[in-house]
Write a structure and sequence with these properties.
The protein contains 17 helices and 32 strands. The chain is of the alpha/beta class and 559 residues long. The chain has four domains: 181 residues, 3-Layer(bba) Sandwich (FAD/NAD(P)-binding domain), CATH 3.50.50; 113 residues, FAD/NAD(P)-binding domain, CATH 3.50.50.60; 114 residues, FAD/NAD(P)-binding domain, CATH 3.50.50.60; 110 residues, Rhodanese-like domain (Oxidized Rhodanese, domain 1, 3-Layer(aba) Sandwich). The N and C termini lie far apart (86 Å).
Length: 559
């Protein structure tokens, strides 16, 4: 059997390696149009920033090591330019000229290509992107002499590039067309990331894009969609990627409206002799069921393995993609898994959101950091997705939540998770247990929540109680709020009832826990009560335009 693989990074090389382990006799030829094989795309920003000093460290293999270890025929600087499905051949152009190569099985792993905005000046020499080893080498060299840079796009790669350039001493302006940085995050968590960027000297412009790039006396001038301009020595375009699926389209394979190659759960295309893997394919999302590209290294590698197993008819049941991803932004970590509220709304799936802000390990042990978690649940408590932002412990929790999603866990399962605990590592009630506990309470009807979108109604129709300490209240509170510390709720019930005058009572604290305690007392005393999801930490991030009052709030005894 001859297996031909197009693309020698991630999915392609995983397919080649797995195929060799399954069949020592197969002839396996891998074509790569670039100069490098099996390199780590994800490490490129860290080479630009100098944390990975040597470009050789980005290369996991060479054609020679792959021939020696796996007996693979890997041909670099060789581009596949056409597929003849009827003849089962590919046309390739490389150092030996133009050739026709036959295949028994063909695996397409062409990856994705940078999505360059259609604006004047995007082809200027000062404008680049970060997709290949050569891109990283060029950008690292340019950063040595650059004083200023504009990064277009504040997704995962854009944030990593901005951090890398700041690490080289470059003044960076980050421009994002959507209203927030890191669009996969919910807005209230994205604001924490934006705050970290600005604290580290990155200029952040959201809600605007670039409309033109023009040569300047030094570098270029970038004009934004609002007419503002900024000068830069270099511009890095990180505005996303699109499937590099030209070969598949020209061969008449089935693609979606984005150009992504449509495959079955075992990576087969609509041609029985052709498989496709990686960024160029459309995959099923494990929560929403939406079929779309998910350009991540982990899924690409697993898809390559699955394609090889399918070729040899030993494929296991495939699992859908959850889109688990993580990024470091200076001292902060942000991560996502599963479905966000926006994704669920687009898919028409009912959901409940819950926020927590617990410490990443026991609060009494030195060094504990606040861990901001947001999870989406079905109304019955089934976990649908999660996001986290914090300075420590985010990766651990997102990985556990991704595993819980794969297992179909819900609130009861999270509540009963038995996780490793010692004060330096966690808490006896881990933040994930707390998510489960609170969602159990919601499903059981013991927890009623109010949120940012309820603020106008609450201000007009409810009594608002601030149940934090006096010192916390003096540092900022809602002007309508009446101050009753949570541990004084029980002895103040008659006064609260008189002041409410039959209105609902809406409670908040710093992070949502003390207000939950107050809510339970109020609810069991006959009040229409609800606690703000995530407390003031979520409230202020969700509603940055709100006016806050410093100084004491109205005390209950004045009612």
């Amino acid at each position: 059997m001859r297996i031909v693989i197009v693309g020698a990074v991630a999915g392609g090389m995983s397919a080649a390696a797995r195929a060799r382990r399954l069949d020592e006799t197969a002839e396996i030829i891998v074509f790569e149009k670039g100069s490098y094989v099996s390199f780590t795309n994800c490490g490129l920003p860290y080479h630009v920033g100098g944390e990975i000093a040597s470009q050789e460290a980005l290369l996991l293999h060479t054609p020679e090591t792959l021939r020696s270890s796996l007996h693979l025929d890997v041909r670099v600087n060789t581009e596949v330019t056409g597929i003849d499905r009827a003849a089962q051949t590919v046309t390739v152009t490389g150092p030996d000229g133009k050739q026709t190569v036959a295949y028994d099985a063909l695996v397409l792993s062409p990856g994705s290509e940078a999505s360059m905005p259609p604006i004047p000046g995007v082809d200027l020499p000062q404008v680049t992107h970060l997709r290949t080893v050569d891109d990283a080498i060029v950008l690292a060299d340019r950063a040595t002499d650059a004083q200023s840079a504009v990064v277009l796009g504040a997704g995962f790669i854009g944030l990593e590039t901005a951090e890398a350039l700041r690490g080289r001493g470059v003044d960076v302006t980050l421009v994002e067309f959507t209203p927030q940085v890191l669009p996969p995050l919910s807005p209230e968590l994205a604001r924490l990331v934006e705050r970290e960027l600005t604290a580290n000297g990155v200029g952040v412009i959201t809600g605007e894009g670039a409309s033109a790039i023009a040569p300047a006396k030094r570098g270029v001038t970038v004009t934004l969609t609002n007419g503002a301009t900024t000068r830069a020595d270099l511009v890095v375009v990180c505005t996303g990627v699109r499937p590099h699926s030209r070969l598949a389209v020209e061969a008449g394979l089935n693609v979606d409206d984005r150009g992504a190659i449509i495959v079955d759960p075992h990576q087969r295309t609509d041609d029985p002799h052709i498989w496709a893997v990686g960024d160029a394919t459309a995959v099923h999302h494990g929560v929403t069921g939406v079929v779309a590209p998910v350009p991540l290294a982990g899924p690409a590698n697993r898809q390559g393995r699955r394609a090889a197993e399918s070729i040899f008819d030993v494929a296991k049941d495939a699992k859908p993609v959850l889109g688990t991803a993580i990024v470091r932004v200076f001292g902060l970590t942000a991560a996502v898994t599963g479905a966000s509220p926006r994704m669920l709304e687009r898919a028409g799936i009912d959901y409940v959101v819950h926020h927590t802000h617990h410490r990443h390990h026991a609060s009494y042990y030195p060094g504990s950091q606040q861990l901001h978690l947001m999870a989406t649940f079905a109304p019955d408590g089934t976990l649908l997705g999660a996001q986290g932002v914090g300075r420590a412990g985010v990766d651990k929790r997102i990985d556990v939540l991704a595993t819980a999603l794969r297992a179909g866990f819900g609130a009861d399962d999270l509540a009963e998770l038995e996780l490793a605990y010692a004060p330096p590592f966690g808490s006896a009630k881990d933040p994930l247990n707390m998510l489960g506990f609170m969602m159990q309470n919601y499903v059981a009807g013991n927890l009623a929540l109010w949120r940012a979108e309820d603020m106008d109604w609450v201000r007009a129709h409810a009594l608002i109680l601030d149940v934090r300490s006096a010192g916390e209240v003096e540092r900022g509170h809602l002007p309508e709020a009446v101050h009753v510390p949570h541990d004084q709720i029980r002895q103040s019930l008659d006064l609260i009832r008189d002041l409410a005058g039959g209105r609902p009572v809406r409670v908040y604290c710093a992070s949502g826990f003390r207000s939950y305690l107050a809510h339970r007392v109020l609810a069991q005393s006959g009040f229409d009560s609800a606690t703000f999801d995530g407390g003031m930490l979520t409230m202020r991030a969700s509603l940055p335009q709100l006016a806050w009052v410093n100084g004491p709030a109205a005390p209950l005894v004045h009612a």
